[in-house]
Design goal:
Order of helices and strands of chain A: EHHHHHHHHHHHHHHHEH
Shape of chain C: globular
Largest sheet of chain C: 7 strands, mixed
Chains: A mainly alpha (362), B mainly alpha (310), C alpha/beta (512)
Strand content of chain C: 15-25%
Number of helices of chain C: 17
Distance between the termini of chain C: 25 Å
Oligomer: heterotrimer
Number of strands of chain C: 23
Helix content of chain C: 25-40%
Number of strands of chain A: 2
Helix content of chain A: over 70%
Chain lengths: 362, 310, 512
């Protein structure tokens, strides 16, 4: 019989080892899933995990990895700050949408003016939009003790409705022959977020993601606020004893994650997506939850996790076109990854011991 | 007494139908939370129930088997949650979210090739002449069995929690798992059973959406119903009868806004379609602040994991 | 031995990782005997009784009950065999009423209405009145214990295990409890009585088995030996009482006046117009039974609950509106009762826990950035100065024993050289050597001119170190009186006598 035994001190080795174990287990379980779908599991796993990095089209796909990893990392770092403090913002998808809409509106409002101030202003607008959307659950929690999980999630549905109104109504391209969708930012230089080095995939969002990862790492490791965030999540009463204001933490963490999600939305809509359309959002706000946990709520880990998750997106698309793998199989695969991670996480806090049955049954 | 051409009897009858999925899911989650477990995977379990129920019904031609299949599908998925939180002691919030993300993906994978198919029709119960009574006949005696069953389940949960020893033990486990363990109750076993019951209810609710309410299969068919069910548990302050009220309230809002959209009311469509979510938020705010603070009536060990050390 | 052997324990042993909780323990309890299991914290008493009650399975050894082999697989089996237990940390449910709580402890409870009647009968019969309809969360600590006892008595146990039952009672309530236990013993029920309080055992018990570090180190008839002899067996060495310097007291350092605080928790106790003064160099002991407002008073003094500015004053300046860190800056340091989760974060290292309350006074941050080398140095200083036994300062707080963690927590506060220090239950669950060390450290700080407030449920502790004593009862604080010349009876009355026990007042005289 297996018995869990609490470790006196959490294991550092396992804290780093569990994500790798989870990835390995997911590959095995995913392989079984792909086999059940009638695909050659080895071919699928190679297409997802190997080809984008080292295959025939790697020169292009490596850039795509950065394009997909940047928004995931931006959002996940923000979420991780809150998750660490026990503040559960799961409405990043909504903040991402609203950030994109606010930022895009600024650019579209001044179309076709050319000025180098327009894009920075749009960035500020994107961050502000996400921040405002996240402030709703934050203030409801601090003022009325309302559950931020449910409120932030409900606001995703509201944001999606606003998005469909934007794409078909107030932001619709007046020269678009009545089709839904805004003007394309890639043809509006002052407001676009182009690739900075040809073929690299690096756009302003990638650079922002790197900066944010480093800043969050410093915050959590070196700054008192980061210490308070960790303390509040682990031992709320001890945090109060240490003089941490729970309200201020909620406002900070929700605000930061909202602003970062808004930024990610703005960079996406002005760059890779190109325009506000009914479905320009592809669920990054939810996938980022997986990324945050896979990265162990640690900014550097999140960066690696975002790259891995981007790999499953890029590789998954390849597998869809080349091998006919249903695109939803990749979402199942990502979900499995989170399950395995949560399961093996037990190893960092508990030892698994084999207890002889005879003794227990005595 | 019509307004915008909406007949009140039809409106009430259809709100009773619209309320079934969230009522089932919410009463299941209520029992789970009473046992001290916070399962945020209701949405994922519902959509799993929706697709497994749909597939079963399409292949067997039997709505009854469809509902059973829906309950079973959600229960299988919830076993993952039970294993992770009760055995591996994983964080309940994170695991619940994972369950929802996974369920949405898996249902979409399983549902490939089922788009556009009509499921077998779930018959209305034959009430004979009762259905002919003006107004009341349309409101009370024109439904399928699940409408009545969902109310019966709410009543049963209320009875069990209030009057039975099993209900007392369940509440005790949710109140203080350490004390319950000290008295020799099997905390983990009781919680796993509660999780399975909650999943069965969510699965039934999901199957009701794809078999009766819509009735067809599309990706993301539950559209947040699971989250609204979670909100209703808070609204109900963990009291079964209030789940009934809450579900009818939200069913009413959903039906009303759909009817208003169809009737071409002057309110923009966007406001109408976001109204259920906004009203959910509003209700949460009202219930969680002020005198009747919902948090005061929440089970004391809600969301905490139990590990019997020493 | 009185009567025939009821429970026999032979060669019982139990190991946990890194700890030998019980080793070759043998003893016997006779029918109708009150048998004491004596030992200090961590001696293995709780593990032993958990094995007798079926909560933990022994690794080796045998038990017998009335001559037949006895090996309960779970508490249900123990109860069926006639063994009942009253827990140290109550096994009660706050949000349920008395009758529900009693029913949960029974395997085949009668219908609720009948149960309520029987609760009334039994509780009145033993002088422990209870209202079956009340919510347990609203009861006093003594009444809560009564619920547990009545729950056991309804099942007519042959053996009643009581784990540290008097730690939550006033002296008057102890007297009533003892009367009940004697009545039970006279009716033929055996009682296994676990305690580390020697005088109680001498007053009540027929026989005693003494445990130290998991092993039986002696047995005796308590009435025939002195408390001192038992203490030396229990601790393994003679401890000297802390040295007090009878110095001059300085000016008033801390003033509390008209402090009224609603409790933040559902079943807490609100403070009602609490007031006292503490001078520099003085130790004020605040006694009281658990749940009479200690946590609320602590939170109001530490700054976790903010009050009117003038309700708490430091050197005459109002600080009631300030938070914990601002109060620390002004010289007020505190140490809450709950070590893991309140005074310290269980999963964080000792270094991080040193930062937790030391950041302000030890200047461990610069413009918000943490000075980790300085923090490590501070943590190391605490560990060294206060003899904290730990593999290192990178160890998680939860890995330390209760006594060592408490030394760390108090050391952390005292090394910040506070002008006023407030501690709640400084030696709760701590072994005797560490307790003596901690008390001495508090007295030393007072001797250096700090005002010290000790909130404690342990009357002996207050008598040992305090200059003046005040009692907290249902959120009200009595006027402080000098400790010198106080009698136990007077203290008991200050603590509220026997809470809600007016019916059975005669028992006080009968028992005492």
């Amino acid at each position: 019989m297996l018995v869990l035994e609490k470790r006196p001190t959490p294991s550092r080795a396992w804290a780093w080892g569990t994500p790798f174990l989870a990835v390995a287990l997911t590959m095995v379980a995913g392989g079984l899933l792909f086999a059940a779908l009638g695909k050659d599991p080895f071919a699928v796993v190679r297409t997802i995990f190997w080809d984008p990095l080292f295959g025939e089209f790697a020169w292009y796909l490596r850039g795509q990895l950065l394009v997909k990893a940047a928004p995931l990392a931006l959002i996940a770092v923000g979420l991780a700050l809150g998750f660490r403090a026990g503040i559960w913002n799961i409405g990043a998808e909504g903040q991402y949408i609203i950030g994109a809409i606010v930022g895009a509106s600024i650019g579209l409002a001044v179309y076709p003016t050319e000025s180098r101030w327009i894009f920075p202003l749009m960035i500020a607008g994107g961050a502000f939009g996400g921040w405002v959307w996240a402030m709703i659950p934050a203030i409801l929690r601090t003022r009325f003790n309302t559950n931020e999980i449910l409120v932030s999630l409900m606001l995703v549905y509201v944001a999606e409705t606003i998005l469909s109104k934007a794409a078909t109504g107030f932001l619709r391209n007046p020269e678009g022959a009545g089709f839904p969708g805004s003007r394309n930012f890639n043809t509006y230089k002052a407001a676009s977020n182009p690739e900075l080095f040809a073929g690299s995939g690096v756009h302003w969002g990638v650079i922002a993601a790197l900066v944010v990862v480093i800043a969050a790492h410093v915050l959590l490791q070196r700054h008192l606020l980061g210490f308070q965030i960790r303390l509040a999540g682990q031992a709320p009463r001890a945090a109060r004893f240490a003089g941490v204001s729970a309200e201020r933490l909620v406002v900070f963490c929700m605000g930061a994650s909202g602003a970062l999600a808004g930024l990610a939305g703005l960079f996406e809509v002005t760059g890779p997506a190109g325009q506000i359309s009914i479905d320009f959002n592809t669920g990054y706000g939810f996938t980022a939850i997986i990324v945050a946990f896979l990265g162990r709520l640690n900014p550097v880990g999140i960066l690696l996790a975002a790259l891995l998750m981007a790999l499953t997106y890029v590789g998954g698309e390849m597998a869809a076109t080349n091998l006919g793998l249903p695109s939803s199989a990749i979402r199942v695969f990502q979900g499995m990854l989170l399950f395995f991670l949560l399961a093996v996480d037990v190893l960092s806090n508990y030892r698994i011991r084999l207890a002889p049955l005879s003794k227990e049954a005595r | 007494m019509d307004f915008y051409g909406i007949n009140p009897a039809v409106l009430i009858a259809s709100l009773m139908v619209a309320a079934v999925p969230i009522m089932l899911a919410a009463i299941g989650e209520l029992l789970v939370e009473k046992a001290g477990v916070l399962n945020l995977g209701v949405e994922g379990m519902m959509i799993m129930g929706a697709i497994t129920g749909f597939i079963t019904a399409v292949h067997t031609g039997s709505p009854l088997l469809g509902f059973l299949g829906g309950a079973a599908g959600a229960m299988v998925l919830s076993l993952v949650f039970a294993l992770l939180t009760q055995v591996f002691l994983a964080n309940q919030v994170a695991t619940g979210l994972a369950l929802t993300l996974f369920g949405l993906g898996l249902s979409s994978l399983m549902g490939q090739g089922y788009n556009g198919i009509k499921p077998p029709r779930t018959p209305h119960l034959p009430f004979g002449p009762l259905g002919e009574i003006p107004f009341l006949g349309r409101v009370l005696f024109s439904h399928d069995a699940m409408v009545y069953l969902s109310v019966a389940i709410v009543a049963a949960v209320w009875m069990v929690l209030r009057y039975s020893r099993a209900g007392l033990i369940l509440r005790a486990v949710g109140e203080s798992h350490d004390a319950a363990h000290a008295l020799g109750y099997k905390v983990v076993r009781i919680r796993v059973m509660a999780i399975l019951f909650g999943a069965a209810m969510a699965g039934l609710g999901g199957a009701y959406i794809s078999l009766v309410r819509v009735p067809q299969w599309t990706d993301g068919i539950t559209a947040g119903a699971g989250w609204i069910a979670l909100a209703i548990v808070v609204f109900a302050s963990w009291r079964p009868w209030r789940v009934l009220v809450g579900a009818y309230l939200f069913g009413g809002i959903t039906v009303l806004q759909l009817n208003l959209q169809a009737a071409g009311a002057r309110i923009p469509v966007e406001y109408l379609s976001m109204s259920p979510y906004l009203i959910t938020i509003l209700v949460l705010v009202i219930m969680s602040s002020g005198r009747g603070r919902a948090s005061l009536t929440a089970p004391a060990s809600l969301g905490q994991n139990f590990h019997a050390s020493r | 031995m009185k009567g025939e052997v009821l429970l026999g324990v032979e060669g019982i042993g139990k190991s946990y990782p890194g700890v030998r909780a019980n080793d070759d323990v043998s003893f016997a309890v006779g029918t109708g005997e009150v048998h004491a299991l004596l030992g200090e914290n961590g001696a293995g008493k709780s593990t032993l009784v958990k094995m007798i009650y079926g909560l933990v399975k022994p690794d080796e050894g045998r038990m017998s009950l009335r001559g037949a082999p006895y090996a309960p697989a779970e508490p249900r089996a123990a109860r069926a065999a006639g063994v009942a237990m009253v827990f140290q940390h109550f096994s009660l449910f706050d949000a349920l009423d008395v009758a529900d709580n009693v029913a949960l402890g029974m395997d085949a409870p009668p219908p609720m209405r009948e149960l309520a009647t029987r609760i009334r009968e039994v509780s009145d019969g033993y002088g422990l009145p209870l209202d079956p309809g009340r919510l347990v969360g609203d009861l006093s600590a003594g009444e809560r214990q009564r619920v547990e006892i009545v729950r056991c008595l309804l099942q007519h146990p042959k053996l009643l295990i009581m784990d540290e039952p008097t730690s939550v009672l006033t002296p008057q309530e102890v007297a009533i409890l003892f009367a009940t236990l004697r009545q039970l013993a006279a009716e033929g029920t055996s009682i296994l009585y676990i305690s580390h309080k020697l005088e109680e055992i001498r007053a009540l018990c027929d026989a005693a088995t003494i445990l130290r570090r998991g092993r039986v180190v002696g047995s005796c008839v308590p009435r025939e030996v002195s408390a001192r002899e038992m203490a030396e067996l229990m601790v393994g060495a003679s401890l000297k009482p802390p040295a007090r310097a009878a110095g001059e007291k300085g000016p008033v350092a801390l003033t509390v006046e008209g402090l009224s605080v609603p409790s933040p928790s559902a079943f807490g106790t609100s403070l009602k117009s609490v007031g006292f003064e503490v001078r520099q160099g003085e130790v004020l002991g605040i006694g009281g039974v658990a749940g009479n407002g200690q946590d609320e008073l602590m939170a109001a003094l530490s700054g976790e609950i903010r009050t009117a500015e003038g309700a708490v004053r430091l050197h005459g300046r109002g600080i009631g509106h300030l938070g914990p860190n601002e109060r620390r800056k002004d010289g007020l340091c505190t140490a809450p009762e709950e070590r893991l989760g309140h005074a310290a974060a269980p999963d964080m290292s000792l270094t991080e826990n040193a930062l937790l309350s030391g950041a302000v006074r030890k200047r461990l941050t610069r413009r918000g950035f943490i000075d980790w080398p300085a923090t490590r140095a501070f943590a190391g200083e605490v560990v060294k100065t206060y003899d904290v036994r730990t593999p290192g300062i990178a160890t998680a707080a939860r890995a330390l024993s209760g006594g060592n963690l408490q030394k760390f927590v108090l050391g952390r506060e005292i090394l910040q050289q506070p002008e006023v220090i407030v501690v709640n239950q400084p030696t709760w669950g701590v072994d005797a050597a560490a307790a003596a060390f901690i008390r001495q450290a508090l007295l030393d700080r007072a001797a250096k001119g700090a005002a010290v407030v000790v909130i404690s449920q342990d009357i002996d502790e207050i008598m040992e170190i305090a200059d003046r004593f005040a009692a907290l009862n249902e959120g009200r604080l009595s006027a402080p009186v000098p400790v010198a010349g106080l009698t136990l009876e007077r203290i008991g009355l200050m603590l509220g006598g026997a809470h809600g026990m007016h019916v059975a007042e005669g028992a006080i005289h009968a028992g005492a």
